[in-house]
User: Fold 2-succinyl-5-enolpyruvyl-6-hydroxy-3-cyclohexene-1-carboxylate synthase from Bdellovibrio reynosensis.
Amino acid sequence: MTNMELAGKVIQELVRTGVREFILCAGARNSPLVNILDENKNLKVYSFFEERSAAFFGLGRIASTRRPVAIITTSGTAVAELIPAAVEGTYSSLPLIMVTADRPKHFRGTGAPQTIEQVGIFSYYNEVALDLDAENSHLSFKSLSWKKPIHVNVCFEEPLLDGPIPKIEIPTVSERTKLPGQLPLGTLKEMEDFLNTHQPLVMVGILPEKAHNTVLEFLKQYKAPTYCEGISSLRGHPDLKDFEIRSGEQMIHRVFKEGICDSVLRIGGVPTTRFWRDLEDKYKNIPVFSVSFNHYTGLSRPVEHCNSLDLLSQVEFTHPHRENVKLNIEDLALAEKVRALLMKYPKSEQGLIFGLSYKMKGGSVYLGNSLPIREWDSCSAHESMPVRVAANRGANGIDGQISTFLGWAHPETENWCLVGDLTAMYDLSSLWATSQLDARKLRVVVINNGGGQIFSRMFNKDIFINKHQISFESWAKMWNWDYQKWTEIPDTTQFTDRQVLEIVPDWDQTQSFWKEYEALWKE
Assistant:
């Protein structure tokens, strides 16, 4: 089998299994694959010069299209650049297919130029690693769960381009069918028993878009006190106003202190709240039932868990959670006090998020790392719901965030990305993809507070913060994006298609807000 035949077989099998988009990082060793993608114009190809950002862009495309996406790299350290996205894809259940070109197998272990041990490099962070060459070209994606990345390593001999370029046929119907699978009857009964014998607080984390209605209908029927994170896309939904906690995460602690709830029902991804981490120690005796889209419970201690959100549409409970009017009244009163503080300190970091959330109403909002996520949850206006919210929260890292946002951006909405300054610096090459996107209304908001201020309240040591005095204006100009700098949110704004908005909080107002905010919970 020639290199071109082997490369054609790989691309054809990827297409047959449902791949419709390819992320390409071209080089010499993967030139057989590059030439096939270039000549077959019926395939959608995004070109990148840098593999790490490209892989995170691929995760964004998977989250947006709900199809597997293939990234194709050359050999050597280019392969290692995919590891961060493979880690995120594993914990977020995003099946990135990593196709890596390689030198012939007999070069392994010799230290020959551009030769590293590529097979096995992803360790735990792929479902399967396939090692192909002309003598072993069998390739099949059947019987996979499609909940982890997949590694396809393809070895090419010299000369690399050794034959005609094959034509790739796109089947009218993909052979890959995503089967939800039957729910174990035991798991269904366990959840019904849990709901009928406990008074849980419901915590809703990140959700696949297709699960929004299923989860919403369950919440409306069960009526338990519910804390929806912003990344669930359900925060502030009008149908939840009578039982959604809207004053902030601190109310969760009060709910358990006052004995209103005795357990936790987690729905969706692992929550980002501090309370969730407290379930390991401070609240280690609180029972937890977890319903998610993968097998990760998010806790080191044993908890009951189901890895299918479809369970929520099948479960039956003998009675809904008892309504707690007192809790609702107390929560709304505190929420109004928090809102008053946000309006009192409009130039604080929290006040800027509050004002900015009104600009984002009806758009697609990507929350880029821990601090923006937490500030969005505590400070954004509930009545200004985006239509879509997303984040990379599988491994909670700060790399590749803007690249993932660009992959996830939607052509029919305004697309907003909210990131911290260090997160933006981690992904400076991300805007390369802009000219290849169908999405046009793109806004990258960088909260420039002079470093990693999430650590300032945790450790009170400057060494954790990485202080700087960098502006992002030159970065925007480098990629031909428009730029604005805000120290307060203007009443009216003329937006262009591609804009970097650098918001600079007032330090004194931020500290004053925190001081008065914390005092609210001591009243």
User: Anything to note?
Assistant: The chain has three domains: 3-155, 185-328, 345-520.
